[in-house]
Amino acid sequence: MASPFLHRAALRHPSPARQPPPRPQPPQQPPQPRRFGAATFALLAVFAASGAGALWVYPRLVKPQEQPAQPEKAEIVFEKTRKRPASKEEGRDLVSSQHLQVKNSWEHPGVYAWGSNTGRVAAPGSSETVIKTPRRIPYFDGQILRDVKLDREFGAAVTEDGDLVQWGAAFSKDSVAPAVTLKGKDIAKIEVSRDRIIALSSNGSVYSIPVAKADQASGLKETSKSWIPFWSETAALSYRSLKPENLGWGERVVDVRSGLEHCLLLTSKGRVFSAAASSEEFPSRGQLGIPGLTWQTRPAGPYDQPHEVPGLRGLTAKSVAAGDFHSVVLDSQGRVFSFGDNSTGQLGVQTDLGVAVDTPALVPINQLYSGTNLQPRVTSIAAGGLNTFFTVDAITTKSQTPGEVGRIVADTWACGEGIHGNLGTGKWTHVSAAPTKIRALSGLYEYDEAAGRVVPIRLARLAVGSTHACAILDNFTHLSASSKTAASDTNFGADVLWWGGNECYQLGTGKRNNANTPVHIGPLDGGLADAAHGRTGETLRLQITPRTTVQLGEDGKGRTASVEQRVECGRHVTAVYSGA
Ligand SMILES: *[C@@H]1O[C@H](CO)[C@@H](O)[C@H](O)[C@H]1NC(C)=O
Ligand SMILES: *[C@@H]1O[C@H](CO)[C@@H](O)[C@H](O)[C@H]1NC(C)=O
Ligand SMILES: *[C@@H]1O[C@H](CO)[C@@H](O)[C@H](O)[C@H]1NC(C)=O
């Protein structure tokens, strides 16, 4: 019998009684079901009623019979002797870590990075080999960026004006510091392969730019397998153009995704093209989705000319995703197709087509819900490394309980490698034969005050790196605390959880052990601002500020911009940046 609240329930409760501090869970244990009953609602009502009288106290929402396995962490209660807040804003800083984090994201836009630093990517100015907790890259201070992509050996970013910035050892051993390379192309977004940057400009042009500064200057990449035929561009900086043939009237490329050796191009008409994206290896694991296409059999013309994926002709693709050696496509009917490398089960398809599948295969999503009263529809896909993820809205089709029909369960599924914990399912399995549900990111609900009902919590975004990943929850957020609202009205952003490989400290936990279930990490400044306001300890957790238009800078005295915090999980490196 399905309960109206599946695994956990999160409640949006009236201020100031919001945000229960996270309860630390022993590692390797699946998240405990948490249900709030009528008692909790009553409790909430008490807090709501007590209003300003309950100032600066964090309530703890724990059902009495649900005893935590570990001793409770000490509550954060402010010392009686604390000076009284002089202003509303000061009071909010005193009461809320989340409020401070939102404020910091607006006052100090820029990039925080952590993880591997062997390629001088997380901290270009430091010779440390790992950066254990978030650290700012000073070059980007005050900047908001269109995109950031990180490899262990190089970093690439797009400025607010659409110029490309590059740094790290694979860019230039002699000058690892960030520098503008390609200018004036109005780049909207970038992806990175093993050794190239695939850039999509606002008007739909796609450029393939060598990572190495030396290759940009010479136009030739010297490798033992120097098989690059020719360069089609003559420019100060050598790059290639990826132009799909036969685009229709008004049709243009609207998205690009890249694996280590291949990339996918999505057009405004929902067509999918694939192309070689590396100068080192031609894709050979079926990830292009072009049966029979190899380096030897390729047609005349540039080696990296885009080809339309024949197995996807006739359907309307909505989004594309690429792992290291595989491809995933979501169409307008909510169907998911995958092709390429299946060595760790990342295709999510259980028929034996071999480890390299060069024809799109349909992922049998309905099978995952067979025997239930739920009808699934895939809402988003993501891929990275040897993993694929997708989110599903599963709609209740029949039920004895009135009001149950039409209720939506939002689930998150994972396939592929799990050895680093990268499935997020609580297991360390090497290979997943079929998609597995990430329980910690499935069946979540919160109470929608405005609508007066319980609503599912979906994911706002999934960022997938080579062995680690991060999910930003689409919970309620609040960004409108102002001089006109009550002193108890504090801002808060979106919850964000991390899991997977942590060999280079890329999860940001400050420790090195991998996590096979999603975990919280601390605030980006390491809790310094909180400590200044008397808050310390593990109850502090990072939240991400969603998009809003604000005045940036100290005390909101800078320029007005639309900005959101975004997460980039790369190859053993992670960043949180202010996104344009
Ligand atoms: C968001 O939802 C999660 C999962 O239920 C919950 O733990 C968290 O407290 C919620 N965050 C806020 C700000 O309500
Ligand atoms: C985009 O603009 C550039 C010039 O800035 C031009 O060379 C290119 O052909 C345009 N691309 C498309 C697809 O219109
Ligand atoms: C992909 O790999 C998994 C796990 O080895 C296997 O069960 C499945 O049948 C494979 N799928 C295809 C299409 O070969």
UniProtKB/TrEMBL annotation:
Where, if anywhere, are coiled coils annotated?
A: none
Q: Where are the RCC repeats?
A: 270-333, 334-394, 410-475
Instruction: Give an example GO biological process.
Output: mitochondrial respiratory chain complex III assembly
Keyword RNA-binding listed? no
Q: Where is this region: Disordered?
A: 1-36
* Keywords of the record: Membrane, Transmembrane, Transmembrane helix
Residue ranges annotated as transmembrane are 36-58
Listed under GO cellular component are: mitochondrial inner membrane
Quote the protein name from its UniProt record. RCC1/BLIP-II
Could you tell me which species this protein originates from? Answer: Trichocladium antarcticum
